[in-house]
Amino acid sequence: MKRKTAKEILAESFRELAEEKSVDKITVGDITDNCGYSTTTFYRHFRDKYDLIVWEHAQGVAKIMAQIGNNGYSWKQTLIEGANSFQHNKEYLTNLLIHTNGQDFFIRNMTEINYEALKGYVLMSGKIDELDEKTDMYIRIYCLGTVNLTCEWILDKYHINSQELAEIYEKSLPEPLHKYLY
């Protein structure tokens, strides 16, 4: 039996609170009171609630990316699972994007997390130690575009389902990255 870490419990507490109130109204004290931890415990793991949000996103991305190649799990399945996760968490993510002073911080960090995950996978699958500048730029532009598009989709600028969103992710992948992901 795997026990939850303090970070996981604090993240769950934050999510519970975010179901009922705006993210900008949630304090560290609220998070710790909700799960029975002290603020000292919180600050031992996170700088602030935005750091917690970023950590939680990074965990989700890492979990999805770790599946590529296992038992035939493909890049396309990764995109579908990612889009389904966004759909499943749409209300929570909308709260994050609308009701927070850290919206730009979240988007910037979401982009960086996705960039680092994709870069790591390309390095691993290509069996290389370093990316050439153009490949690095293709990864960067792809992550910048998909994160911003995802945020607009979460905020209902586009009215498509998660499967269609995953298809757009797939079709917008720069051609030079195909050899690493397909």
Total helix count? Answer: 10
Envelope shape: globular
Helix and strand element order? HHHHHHHHHH
Low-confidence stretches: none
Mean pLDDT score: 91
Q: What is the C-level CATH assignment of the largest domain?
A: Mainly Alpha
Q: Percent of residues in beta strands?
A: under 5%
CATH architecture field of the largest domain: Orthogonal Bundle
Q: By helix and strand content, what is the structural category?
A: mainly alpha
N-to-C CA distance:
35 Å
> Care to count the β-strands?
0
Write the CATH fold name of the largest domain.
Tetracycline Repressor, domain 2
Q: What assembly state would you assign to the polypeptide chains in this entry?
A: single chain
Account of the 3D structure:
The chain is mainly alpha-helical. It has two domains: 6-45, Orthogonal Bundle (Arc Repressor Mutant, subunit A); 49-181, Tetracycline Repressor, domain 2. The chain has helices spanning 6-18, 28-35, 39-45, 49-65, 75-88, 90-98, 103-125, 133-154, 162-171, 178-181. Helix 1 (6-18) crosses helix 2, helix 1 (6-18) packs across helix 4 (49-65) and helix 7 (103-125) crosses helix 8 (133-154). The radius of gyration is 17 Å and the shape is globular. The N and C termini lie far apart (35 Å).
